[in-house]
Design brief:
It contains 3 helices and 4 strands. By secondary structure, the protein is α+β, with helices and mostly antiparallel strands.
Length: 118
């Protein structure tokens, strides 16, 4: 489970992480990782949010995909720099992906999205 202090909650936080100045992104076939870090959040714990649209599938598939991504990020959140906000967006192909496939994609894309953030 991803602790509450590590979760993005508001729409403004998601928008800032995805479209804010100084943000970066790294994408693959299964997921896209958006990262942003601002001076206002310096020293705060990193936060992660998930976007799984209807394009991924029905409610059961979307919720399963989100649960798997949340579990994978909970194990990786301590490697994210303080003050960083991440948004993990699932592509439609994520619906048919196994947990190891999603983990591999996340391990490949996370360092690229975080490059230059410390």
């Amino acid at each position: 489970m991803l602790p509450a202090r590590h979760r993005l909650r508001s729409s403004a936080d998601f928008t800032s992480a995805v479209r804010g100045p100084g943000g970066s992104r790294s994408g693959g076939r299964l997921i896209v990782v958006h990262a942003n870090q601002t001076d206002a959040r310096a020293g705060d714990p990193p936060r992660v949010g998930f976007v799984v649209s209807k394009g991924v599938g029905g409610a059961v598939v979307r919720n399963r995909t989100k649960r798997v991504l949340r579990h994978l990020m909970a194990a990786r959140v301590h490697g994210i720099p303080s003050g960083c906000d991440l948004v993990v967006r699932a592509n439609p192909a994520a619906a048919g992906a196994s947990t190891p496939e999603l983990a591999g994609e996340l391990d490949r894309l996370l360092p690229k999205a975080l490059r230059g953030r410390s």
